[in-house]
Amino acid sequence: LNADLVLEVVQSGAGVKGEIFAQSSHPFSSFVVPPGRTVNSGTLGNVLLTQGAIASLGIIPLGILDITAALTVRIGQGG
């Protein structure tokens, strides 16, 4: 497909066995990936530790993490 990919929102979550430990949602005002190219979004901040920082430390020794992600995108600049 020879069209720009316009990312509007990126959402993600991380947890273990269905228990969510982190969530993030980041809207973009102008993030375009031209056809056949790669781009860098930079650092996405404001990750919410839903169980708190101390409780989240307990998942480190488990060595596993379930990740969810959702993107809202448009194909082409005009949508």
What is the structure about, briefly put?
This protein is mainly β and 79 residues long. 5% of the residues lie in helices and 49% in strands.
Main-sheet strand order equals: 3-2-1-4
What is the CA-based Rg, rounded? 16 Å
Low-confidence stretches: none
Instruction: Give the helix level as a range of percent.
Output: under 10%
Structural class: mainly beta
User: What's the count of strands?
Assistant: 4
Strand content: over 45%
Number of helices: 1
- Separation of the first and last Cα atoms: 14 Å
For the biggest sheet, the summary is: 4 strands, antiparallel
Indicate the overall shape. Answer: elongated
The number of domains is 1
**Average pLDDT for all residues:** 93
Question: Would you list the SSEs in sequence order as H and E?
Answer: EEEHE
Question: What descriptive keywords fit this protein?
Answer:
four-stranded antiparallel beta sheet, single chain, 49% strand, 1 helix, mainly beta
Structure description:
- The chain has 79 residues and is mainly β.
- The protein has one domain.
- It has one helix at residues 53-56; strands spanning 5-16, 19-33, 48-49, 66-75.
- It has a four-stranded antiparallel β-sheet, with no helix packed on it.
- The model has no long low-confidence stretch (mean pLDDT 93).
